[in-house]
Amino acid sequence: MKYIIILGDGMADEPIESLDSKTPLEYAKTPTMDRLAKLSEIGLCHTIPEGMKPGSDTANLSVLGYDPKQYYTGRSPLEALSIGVDMKATDIAIRCNIVTVSDDELPYEKKTIIDHSASEISTEDAAVLLKALKDELQNETYKFYLGTSYRHLTIWDKGEVVELTPPHDILGSEIGTYLPNDAYLKCMMVKSYDILNNHPLNIERAKKGLNKANSIWFWGAGTRPALTSFEDKFHKKGAMISAVDLLKGIAVGANMKVVEVLGANGTLHTNYVGKAMAGVKELLENNYDFVYIHIEAPDEMGHQGSIPNKIIAIEQLDEKVIKVVKEQMDQRGVDYRILIMPDHPTPIHCRTHTSDPVPYMLYDSTKELNNTWNYNEEEAKNSGNVVKNGFDIINKLFE
Question: What whole-number distance in Å separates Cα of residue 218 and Cα of residue 124?
Fold first, then answer.
């Protein structure tokens, strides 16, 4: 038996009036998921433990079977593992986004955060800007590391875990009340605008109609993580397929294989088919027991507040990932179980994560059920099936 999780990050949502009061998942054309739902168990899963913030970090730890209340030490330390930063016990890792704030004459504190991803900046462009920041801001205490796209890392030697606000939580807001209380972190953010706003690369980006990547934003501070080996915990050899450093970092911490896919970039235009085929290869050619195929696009489109693009992301997931994986596994005649779900909702109306339970669908190629439902939030709720602790969902997959 082979085991697969296909995770549509942020795919769950709330009813939208312009979609006839349907969610994007209900509205999207998803023939593969709807066909599978009639053969599967569906239900709701609470991925965010009570009292914890609804992040992709806590939620994906849950889906992978790690209780966030036991294993979570912060988001950035997990990304540090992916980047290859060997954190000391006294180090604090901080997520360092390159974002867009309003380009105006107002003091920095009065500016508005426009875009948490700076028009989904490429890693190549981000590398140029990060070098400019390092030249001006890096010292023995604060070191900057290149990640992917807008997602980068700062390591604070002998630092402390300070309260910081995710930028995607405050899109469209004046930033002053959300800046760090730590004076030096705040100072670096202010200086970053002076360094980046009129950087030649940003002048060119503006001419192309792209948002300037004109400020850094610190958030997600944490200490060095310690995850139990996935294989020791579940007795399964696991592989991770994701374009996002957070997911790669979780995999590194859990001693799972990290599979790099050409063209996988965490955006709406990622290499969906390539990720699907990479998962099949790990299962059928490299003899792995379990693959986790993570698709970031629905979450990014939720943060951008784009209804049409979130629908497209979900349809791409259905057509180019789920359909491809199922067809390939069926053609090879291999028994498999597949779990399809989001990690958390990213509703269009608020453009950030919420803690609401998410719909799951569990299909077993050897035990096809006979149901009438489709796969969406409302029908999952009506099924009556509920997984109260998100970290138990993987045990249902491995039953």
Answer: 21
Closest CA to 168 of 25, 9, 299: 299
Over 90: is that where the pLDDT of 185 sits?
yes
Residue 210's nearest CA partner among 297, 104, 122, 113 is 122
Burial class (CB in 10 A: 0-12, 13-18, 19+), 17: exposed
User: What gap in Å lies between CA 319 and CA 243, rounded to an integer?
Assistant: 19
The single-letter DSSP state of residue 1 is -
pLDDT digit string, tens, across residues 163-173: 999 999 999 99
Element (H, E) at 188: helix 183-196
Distance CA 319, CA 301 (A): 18
CATH code for the structural domain at 2-73+226-397: 3.40.720.10
Rounded CA separation 360/153 (Å): 32
Per-residue pLDDT tens over the stretch 323-341? 999 999 999 999 999 999 9
Cβ(39)–Cβ(370) below 8 Å: yes
Provide the CA 248 distance to its chain's centre, in angstroms. 10
Q: What does the pLDDT look like over 72-127, one tens digit per residue? A: 998 899 999 998 898 998 999 999 999 999 999 999 999 999 999 999 999 999 99
**Phi, psi angles (nearest 5°) of residue 199:** -60, 140
Strand-pair partners of 359:
44
Cα 115 to chain centroid, rounded? 17
Domain parsing of the chain, residue ranges: 2-73+226-397, 83-222
In a 13 Å sphere around the CA of 201, the CA atoms on its Cβ side amount to 16
What local confidence, expressed as pLDDT, does residue 75 receive? 86
